[in-house]
Amino acid sequence: MASFWLTKKALLEALKMTEGQPQTTWITFEGKTEVKDGKEYTVTNIATCGKEKTIREDFNKIRLANGD
Fold first, then answer.
1. Residue 61 covered by a domain
2. Which of 16, 41, 46, 48 could form a disulfide with 27 if both were Cys (CB 3.0 to 4.6 A apart)?
3. How many domains does the chain contain in total?
4. Residue 55: which domain range?
C-alpha cells in the first residue's frame, strides 16, 4: 500500500459518495499534478460504487493552508 497526501475536501467528497454503503466499501483515489496556464494544480480522481468524480485544486493554496 502506498502513502500519499489527500486533502480534507477530497476525503469528505469520497465519504459523501459512499453514504449509505457499508464500511467495507472500497474507494479508489488517483492523484496527479497538472500545469495549466502556468498554474500548478493537484488533481484527484475518486471512484467508488460505480461513481467517479474529479477534484482540481490550486496546489499553491493547499501549500499555504498547511503552512508550507
1. yes
2. 48
3. 1
4. 8-17+27-65
Residue pair 53/7 in contact by the 8 Å Cβ criterion: no
Q: Which of 55, 65, 53, 42 is nearest to 9 (CA)?
A: 55
Q: What share of the chain is helix, strand, coil (3-state, %, to 5)?
A: 25, 40, 35
**DSSP secondary structure letters along 29-60:** EEEEEEEETTEEEEEEEEEETTEEEEEEEEHH
Tens-digit pLDDT profile for residues 18-65: 999 999 999 999 999 999 999 999 999 999 999 999 999 988 777 777
Tell me how far CA of residue 14 lies from CA of 4, 23, 31, 38, in angstroms: 16, 13, 14, 29
